[in-house]
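Possible regression after last week's pipeline update?

I re-ran a chain I had predicted before the update to compare outputs. Posting the input and the new output here so someone can diff against the archived version. Not blocking, just want to make sure nothing changed silently.
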Amino acid sequence: MMSVIAHDLAKHLDQRVEQAVTDYIERCTSMGCHPDEVRALAIKVLGEHLTALAIAVEATEPEFVSMCRWYFHNAQQAIADG
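New output (post-update):
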């Protein structure tokens, strides 16, 4: 189980990642980039960092795939719930 400190730092990281993605999308939009290209590149970059993290914590491939699916479905549900 995560410590309280790690949990608080994870919230801070989440806010920073969200801000970085928002800034990236705004800059791409202002430069006239196609939305599909913007999304694809954001997913690619974030996926590379997530993969590096999974390797650092020695997650197996099935664990990594399972975690990605779990988060994807939770995010999808949160978006649907508004």
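Follow-up from reviewer: compared with the archived run. The chain has three helices and no strands. Marking as no regression found.
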